[in-house]
Description:
The complex is a heterodimer.
Chain A: H1 2-21, H2 25-46, H3 72-102
Helix pairs in contact in A: 1-2, 2-3
Chain B: H1 8-22, H2 27-55, E1 58-61, E2 72-75, H3 77-100, H4 103-106, H5 110-126, H6 130-149, H7 154-185, H8 190-197, H9 203-221, H10 229-233, H11 239-263, H12 269-292, H13 296-317, H14 320-351, H15 362-365, H16 367-381, H17 389-401, H18 405-431, H19 451-473, H20 475-490, H21 492-500
Antiparallel strand pairs in B: 1-2
Helix pairs in contact in B: 1-2, 1-5, 2-3, 3-5, 3-11, 3-14, 3-19, 5-6, 6-7, 6-11, 7-9, 8-21, 9-11, 11-13, 11-14, 12-13, 12-18, 13-14, 13-18, 14-16, 14-17, 14-19, 14-20, 16-18, 16-19, 17-18, 19-20
Amino acid sequence: MEIILAIITGVLYASGIYMILRRSMVKLILGIILLGNGVNLLIFLLGRITKGQPPIIDSTEKALEGIYADPIPQALILTAIVISFGLQAFAIILVKRAYKVLKTDDLDQLNTTDEDS
Amino acid sequence: MTNDIIILPLVVHLFFSILLMLFWNKVNFQKVVSMVGNAIALCVAIWAFIHVYNNGTQIVESGNWPAPFGIVFVGDMLAVTLVLLTAIAGFAVSVFSTISVIKARLRFGYFSVFHFLLLGLNGAFLTGDIFNLYVWFEIIIISSFVLISIGGEKNQLEGAVKYFALNFFASMIFLTALGVLYGLVGTLNMADISLKIAEVKDTTLVEISAVLFLVGFGIKSAIFPLYFWLPASYHTPPSAVSAIFAGLLTKVGVYALIRVFTLIYGGDSFLTTLLLFLAIMTIFSGGIGAIIQNNIKKVFMYFIICHIGFMIGGLALFTEVAMAGVIFYLIHDIIIKTNLFLISGLIYRIKATTNMKKLGGLYAHYPKLSLLIAIPLFSLVGIPPLSGYWPKISLILASFNAQEYWFFGALIFGSLITLIVIAKLWSEVFWKDQPKINFPKKFIYFDQLRLGQKFTFVFPVAFLTFVTLYIGFGAEHIQQLSQRIAMELMNNELYINAVLKR
């Protein structure tokens, strides 16, 4: 299972970065979304995958014993998903506005701010 | 529960940002509330600073969870000093915003978002949990995205796209680094990580996570190969927004670098060599960039990059003297960079342009104002006894003692090029006669403003100049403070013991 997740994470990172390097603004957003998902999977994977051992302390015991699933990575991923969702929503609106005003989708055309004024 | 004082700055900003949302359309009322809110935040920050100065590091555990398990807020000297500087800069910029930002922008919740930005900054300085640091960073960047794009001008949107793409990418790298680090040590509390990272056998993975942190924070703090988003975006929003970005957003990246590379990855030889190289290149590229620009705002932007190099280099030297220099420089830099962009806004209001070729004759028409502006400019260069001079002594001494002559040379080069560019700026903008250009008719010039409005324009600049003068002439106090912070940073067991209560 780990190996499949590792490969998927790698593919998501690679495709995300490839998309960010493209010239289109829409592809930039797609790249950001893919990269965000790649990061989430990475955290999930690095928190170690344990099957069938929930982190719940039995009523007869005081502490967790043995190997159990770590709940923290899931909390981290949940937070990261919510944050990146908000940012992606903002990004889509920003790109839409930018397209309306600048009338281009090509990132190479965005060079008026570098001109001497 | 007197130590709860250190989270009061967060509570104040959260309260005011929510309060301002309730008065969405009442712009004039918002102006007053925001100024009052920032004044209160300044008082609270001073109180917190004095409390920590007298009683040492203070800890607040959220939900009373003991340290390695719950999120802790740590008010050590570095954190509260930066909170105090944030409050000073925030107060000045909020006063400046009331007059310089047009109503069309203010109607879209400018002040509310501004308080959220300050909330995020304060949170990032105070938190002791590395994932919580990520969350505060996200609050900072999402507020800054709104501030940079509010108004929706062509330039702004263009800058915003670039700013957004690279800052979001930086956050993703930061999150990746965090994931790798969590996989290695299984904890998120920075003090606890610092203890456990020493036991990790796989040092390659530790270095990989460190380099990922370096890239993530490096993009945010605009160091050498990663700074290209900054000159493309920082000059596009109104001057008040540029001022808070210049003063604090890049510095929060520097703060994160200082915190992570002293507490977690202290003194790793590969990393220090890398950081030193990047610092030298940052100083050179920033300095050379500043020399060829003709727009005042762009010149100042390249100065931000150039002077980030001073701090990163001092961090790389990793001695107590160098660290004291870095902290002193950080204190000086936050105030001065905020002030420079406020000055650029003031010059824009006087002449309707910030292009040096079109400017001129400011000294002849506004001698008193020119004198006021001269003080921060000279402080930036570091003419003794003004504030830029003192940290450079520590940095140069430390680089000489460590026999890092390249960095030594870069420091001299950076200072010299700052001097040259400021001399050029002074002669072009202040001494040269006004060239004949067509002034736009539909523009409210500084002369046409009422006395109260003029005062509101000049007051924030004067206030920050006064703080700069205090840093320069009261250098002994600041130096003692910097040495104390440097001592705390270099002996990180003080921080760890305070957090974990050992």
